[in-house]
Structures are given as structure tokens and as C-alpha cells.
Model the fold of this input.
Amino acid sequence: MTQQAAIEKACAHVAAAKPLVNPRYYPGFHVAPPCGWMNDPNGFCYALGRYHVFYQFHPYSAVWGPMHWGHAVSDDLLHWEDLPVALAPSEDYDRDGCFSGSAIEYEGELFLIYTGHTYLKKFGDDELIREVQCLAVSHDGGISFEKLGVVIEPPEGVMHFRDPKIWKAGDKFRVAVGGRTVDTDQGIVVLYESDDLRRWTKLGLIDKAEGGLFMYECPDFFTLDDEGTGEKLHVLLTSPMGLKPDGRRFNNPSVNSYKLMRPKAGGKCLYETVQDQVEADRGLDFYAAQTCPDKNGRRVMISWLNMWHVPYPSVPDGWNSALTLPRYLSLKDGVISQEPVDLSPLYLNTAEYESIQAENEEKIISAGKSCLALSFKVKSSAAQAGLRISGSIYLYFDRINGTLTLQRLEGGRSGARSLPVKDGETEIRVILDRCLLEVFYAGQSMTAMFFDPGLKRELALYAANGRAEFSAVTLHELKAPRLEARQGQGAWHPAH
Ligand code: FRU
Done:
């Protein structure tokens, strides 16, 4: 099938399947697939006058399958509009999937660079695969794409070789590609350079991992100015496979993390590590993050809000996964801070409380509202003090362990992650969008999905085994533009 026929087939399926999706948990303002399965964000960029985000997309079911690229655009990183499927498997070199990649504007056109994936034994068998980097271009302002073929073949001794991330360096283009060495089973990130996007020269390795890290998925490579030291550092953001849990760190089945690096002369890599792997998020569902400069050149990151191999209840509803809110990044004294995009255009009603006291009890502050932004501070002598969201989520300061803990209590989906903290005087921000939760504390984030039956959304501030004061409590009810747009397009039919 030609790419055009494959795209038309996929778009026709989306149009037919979208009204059949059960919207009970569907996000109100985050990017999520119109139907079917989503994973990594791809091609996140500001190009041709608007923001684009593409994503790994399997329109035909809510489980992973031959990868297409879904596509959404925005003027403000907050209101997103769905566009037609951008890429579909169609050629020999990408017949089993158009895997992850990135996008860039060049000479007034939008280009995509992505991995063409083929299984050489049988579909789904990772033992023998071929992965090549491919180019596509849009001649209609970034809506439909013409495939231009393979532009980078795997280096010798590398079979897993994917997820090219492109950027402009002076008057050249550069691409970082993740890989795995066949002989020593080490994760590598390979750097290439080009003048015209078509012919690429290998410059060398950005990194070669040690200690069991056997594959770097979804590399991103960019600079941030350290506001503390004044040094410009390189950030290697990846989804590393094989990183071992270490105390409270790296405890998810799949981890997303960054290293700080600087250029180095000589040696096997072009860069040296200044600060080794730091988790990019300390919640339960976060992988494959990708960044771009916003229209003013500020670095912004978006990520897959989900986790491999966790069976979420949206799957039988006909969709799976979402992307996080875009988050601005800054660097201070070797630590990256995240701040979500401004949500104020979505504010509906606001409630403010100067002080809420609780002693071995909880105080309900909201019920039945499923899109909310809440912020508060805590002063506590209790063993636990924080926020309960229905029966699913407990987000609390744990005085005994000195942590901020996010706990999800949902049977087989249960889990907890913690951040070390000094006190509760720093503001906690909690953003809820139906089944999506993003928490920001002192520049760090904790992200998770949660499935509160019936969306009862009872929010309570509580103190257990002691007393706590919650101050500067602000609760905004938020609009749900994406959910509203869906509801105008036909109702879910329970027979499906
Ligand atoms: C990461 C990943 C990528 C790959 C894509 C396939 O989540 O495994 O390495 O390109 O997903 O969907």
C-alpha cells in the first residue's frame, strides 16, 4: 500500500472509531490520541508559526502495533487541535513501523526524521531487526508528508538504532541517535552532522554507557545555561534501558533520566559526564520525554504520560495514554527544574483558603470536579500530611522518612515514589486532568495516571497521627476544551 493509501485508511478508521471511544476518563486538555494507542511524543517543535507535536500512534486498537505518527498543533502549548495522521508504515524500510523521531523547519518546509523499523524474523521479535533513519517532508505547511527514504544506516556492530533527535547547530544540522552495541551490549548515543538533511556524516559518540545500561531510547541533546555557576552545560536526556534501581531512584519499570555533559577532546566519546543520571520525573508514569526551544528560544519538554506494560482501564474504553503538559526547563547548580506551561487561560472558578487546619482528620475541599489545579503549603508535625484524591492517590509529606510521597492504591496498578524533602514550606502544585496527575514541588515533578472509579474526585487535605496546617490553598477549576470538542462529535455507543 502507498503511504497515501495507508494514511487515508488510518484517517478513515480514526473518524469511525473516535465516536466509539468511551470518554469517561478521557483527558480534558492534555494531548491524547483521538482513539487507539499512543506512546512517545515525536517531532515536538515550533515550526511554520505554530507548535507541533507528533506521537507514536496505533489507531487500530488501544494496544501497541505497527506505529503511525499522530499529530496535533497548538498556538500556545495549551490548546491542541488534532491533525490527520502524518506517517504510516508503507515502504520496505518502515513496513513494521514509523518509530520515534523529531522534526525541524528548513527552507520554509517541515521535515521529519524518524526510524524505519522492520522485523527480520516475525512481527514483535526484537532478536533480529533492522532500524534505519528516514526523512519525510511536508509541502503543505506541515499537514501531509512525502517520504524521502533512508538517510542514515546503522553503524557497524549496531542493530538497535533508533529515535533520531534533530537540531540546528550554527549553519549545520545535527542528529543524535540512540543505540545498543551488539558485542558488548552497551547503550550508545551517536552524533551525525549534515548541511542539507539528506547526506549525514558520523561525528562520533556522545555517550557510551557502563554498568548494565544496554540501550538508550529517545535521546535528546541540548544546552542549558546554569543560573548558579554561569556555565553552559549539555543535557543528554534519554530513556535508558537497564539502569538499576538505586534507593529511591530509578524504581519504575522504564526510567527517563538526564546527564549533564561538556565537550571533551580525545577519548572514545565527544563529551564527558559532569553529573550522572538524574531521574527526569519522580512519579509512576513518565517516559520518552522530548524537548524543543519555544518560539522565544526557551527550552520546553513534553513526555509520554504512561508506562510500558501497565494495563490501564482506558484500554477497554478504546484509547490509551496521553502526553504531559509542556514544561519549561531551567538549570541551577547542576539541577534541572520544571515548570508547567501557564494554565491560567483554562481557569473557570477559583477558591482560596488562607489556612486549613487538620488534626488526625481530613478536610474535603472539592468533590465531583475532574479538571483542577490546586496549590498549597504545609506546616506539619503529623506523621503524614497531604492530599487524598478519592481512594486512589495519597500525596503526603512523610515526617518520619523525610519525603514527599506519591502513592497510588489501585490493586495491581499500585505503587509509590518518593522525593527527599526538608519541609513543607515550599508550594506544592497539583494538576488534575480526569485520569492524569502532575505534581510539581521545588522544581521537581511526579507524574501518574490514576483511575478513580466514577470520577468522584474527592479532594481532601489530611493529617494523620498529628497536626498540620495547610496555607495558601488555591483551587482552580479548569476548562476541558479537548473533551468538549469530542462531545460535539457524536456519543459513545455502549454496544461497542
Ligand atoms: C520508546 C520506544 C522507541 C521506539 C518507539 C516504538 O518508548 O521503544 O525506542 O522508537 O517506542 O513505538
